[in-house]
Amino acid sequence: MKTNDRLIANDDRPSGMKSRQAEILELVREQGFVTIEALSRQFDVTPQTIRRDINSLSRSGQLHRYHGGAGISSSTENVAYSERKVICLKEKQKIARALAGLIPDQASLFINIGTTNEEVARALVNHRRLRIITNNLNVASILSRNKDFEVIVTGGLVRSRDQGIIGEATIDFIRQFKVDYGIIGISGVDMDGTLLDFDYREVRVARAIMDNSRQVLLAADHTKFGRNAMVRLGNVQEITALVTDRTPPAALVEVLTAFEVELHVAR
After folding, report:
1. Distance between alpha carbon 175 and the CA centroid of its chain, in Å?
2. Are the C-beta atoms of residues 186 and 224 closer than 8 Å to each other?
3. How far apart are the first and last CA of the chain?
4. Residue pLDDT, tens place only, 53-90
């Protein structure tokens, strides 16, 4: 076996690949931009292996792929909705099942915009007598299949790209209610617990949902931890529970523990 072949074989084991990708991501965050050549030397693997790592991290929205290297993912623009639907789909489905297990029958809830929340809706469809208020037409369509549910859609402006509903009318509508559970998604969670997103109008709706829910459940897969986005929604101290697919980094776990936020890691 040639040296390069042996490196690829050893290096592409799942645990080694995940560890290397985490280190690549850290280097990109520290330096802003790192070349494929430099990463290849750093990890003593072939450029082809580094390109596969960068492609994987780019698909999950954690960094941006450029010609010859990788840079920090944009804080002003999210990954396209069609791509977000398939990124970490299995992980989102696990999160959805775990979160649905926290919702009792006959509960009232808000569900906001997001591909993870659409999976949550699918996981809730066999519950009984739920009352759901949503600004997500995809969620409304999924949940309305259960004749035992009462599904209420907010007013507002419908975004063609993801069927989300936003605007002042949406916020005013949500403020008319006080529900048992608010289920929200997020684009990024900083290590100090700050909740971050890309769209100011979407954040204002999510803020109204948090303010008018007795319990707030955050559904976020592991790619959201440490991810950069421009608009601040709030802090994890304001949520009741975080439901995710992997244990968050130690710094974030400390924040969750300090504010007694429940952590549910889906299996």
Report:
1. 25
2. yes
3. 38
4. 999 888 887 787 877 788 766 554 555 566 666 667 88
The two tokens of residue 256 are 């969750």
Q: What is the pLDDT of residue 59?
A: 83
Residue 64's pLDDT is 77
How far is it, in rounded angstroms, from Cα 71 to Cα 54?
10
Sketch the domain layout of the chain as residue ranges. 3-72, 82-265
CATH topology of domain 3-72: Arc Repressor Mutant, subunit A (1.10.10)
The residue ranking higher by pLDDT, 64 or 35, is 35
Q: Are 87 and 81 in contact, with CB atoms under 8 Å apart?
A: no
Q: What angle do CA 123, 126, 121 make, to 5 degrees?
A: 35
Can you read off the two tokens belonging to residue 106? Answer: 């006959």
Q: Quote the crossing angle between the two packed helices 47-59 and 36-43, to the nearest 10°.
A: 110
Q: Assess whether pLDDT exceeds 60 at residue 15.
A: no
Which residues are bridge partners to 131 per DSSP? 108, 150
CATH architecture of 82-265: 3-Layer(aba) Sandwich (3.40)
